[in-house]
Write a structure and sequence with these properties.
The protein has 5 helices and 4 strands; from the N terminus they run ααβαββααβ. The termini are far apart. By secondary structure, it is of the alpha+beta class.
């Protein structure tokens, strides 16, 4: 017969109640300095000089659409852009859903200027069919995007917001 590991002989037997007891949560603490990799610098959690100038978003035909919009002018503007594109995309997805493959992703890249106009829209990749790619591009082109607030355009490189956007069909 196989021999049990040495520490198994020293452990007390577990009661049935112990097997179903929820583990006690361990409070999270900051990693000690010795855990940080040599040569790296720990950065503070808040960095007021760091400005986001690129938005990464997605739309899917499953579940509720969502955006993790922060209570900032940029966050509110990103949500407005996502809502406008999503509204058009869901309209086309509902009208042409029977023409879609069962699964696939369309990845787009574009910029939004301070007037809310889409610039340099391009298809990065398409793992679905041409229908999804076509109405994803059409959704971005036809979306009624609001003009960018002055406090947002002032911190954007060249006054434009760079956007990578994915459209999923599951």
């Amino acid at each position: 017969p196989p021999t049990p590991p040495p520490d198994a002989l020293q452990r007390p037997p577990q009661l049935a109640a112990d097997l179903f007891r929820r583990p006690t949560p361990v409070p999270r603490t900051a990693a000690p300095a010795s855990v940080v990799s040599p040569g790296t610098q720990q950065l503070p959690g808040y960095q007021p000089e760091t400005q986001q100038s690129k938005m990464v978003g997605s739309v899917s035909n499953r579940g509720m659409p969502s955006v993790s919009a922060v209570g900032t002018p940029l966050g509110r503007y990103q949500k407005a852009v996502t809502d406008a594109i999503g509204m058009k995309w869901y309209f086309y997805a509902n009208r042409r859903g029977d023409l879609l493959n069962k699964t696939g992703t369309v990845k787009l890249h574009f910029y939004v200027n301070k007037n809310g106009r889409v610039e340099e829209l391009r298809l990065v990749s398409n793992t679905s069919n041409e229908t999804l790619a076509g109405f994803s591009l059409q959704s971005v082109q036809e979306a009624k995007l609001p003009p960018m607030p002055a406090e947002v355009s002032a911190v954007m490189p060249n006054g434009r917001l760079e956007i990578d956007y994915d459209f999923y069909v599951h």
